[in-house]
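Purpose: get a first structural picture of the assembly so the mutagenesis plan has something to point at.
Setup: two entries, given in the order below. No constraints added.
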Amino acid sequence: SQQGEEDPQALSIQEGENATMNCSYKTSINNLQWYRQNSGRGLVHLILIRSNEREKHSGRLRVTLDTSKKSSSLLITASRAADTASYFCATDLNQAGTALIFGKGTTLSVSS
Amino acid sequence: SAVISQKPSRDICQRGTSLTIQCQVDSQVTMMFWYRQQPGQSLTLIATANQGSEATYESGFVIDKFPISRPNLTFSTLTVSNLSPEDSSIYLCSGGDSNYGYTFGSGTRLTVV
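Result (C-alpha cells, whole complex):
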C-alpha cells in the first residue's frame, strides 16, 4: 500500500529556478529517502534523512523532515535541464528488514 | 554503495510464457526486494527475497505467479509466470541496508503480446 504522497504531482520550471517537492506519510518511520528516476529507468538514490534529523544537504539538494507533521520536502536549487525526472520519496518503517514504501512521485520538467 | 546488475533490460514475451529476471549485486547485501512499476505509476513491492528460504510476498502477489529465488547474499531471480498483457510493466530489484539507502537495478521493461 502507498505510504507517501508527493505534492505536486507535476512541476514545470525554467532552468535556474528552484524546485520544491513535498512528501507526506502516514506512519512512524526509521528514515525517509528520496530517489530520482529518469524516463522509466532505474532509481538513483539521492539522499537519506533519519527520523532524528531535521535537515540535510547534498550539493544542490536540501531535504527537510518534520516528524510531527509526518512530512518532508526536497528542494533542488538552481535547477538544470538534466534535473528533469520523476522524484519519489520512500519511507523505511520502524521495523528491521522492511522494504521501502514509495510515494506516487513528482514529475519535474526543467526547460532551458 | 552496492551496484546491482539487472538483466534483461527489456523483453517482449508471448502470452502464457514466463520471463525470468536476474539481479547480481557486487557485494553481499542483507536485504533484497522486487518491485513492479506499472506505466506512469510508482513502485509497488512484490516481495522480499529471503536468502535460503521462501520469499515473503505482499498482498496481491503469490508465489505461483511470481516465484523468487535467492540462493546467496549477492543474487536473486524473479520469474513472472503465465504472462498476460496485464503483466506488462517495469520490474526492479533492490538491495542494501536500510540505514544507508538501497540501490536499485536498472529495471526490466516487460511487454506481453
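Chain B has a mean pLDDT of 94.
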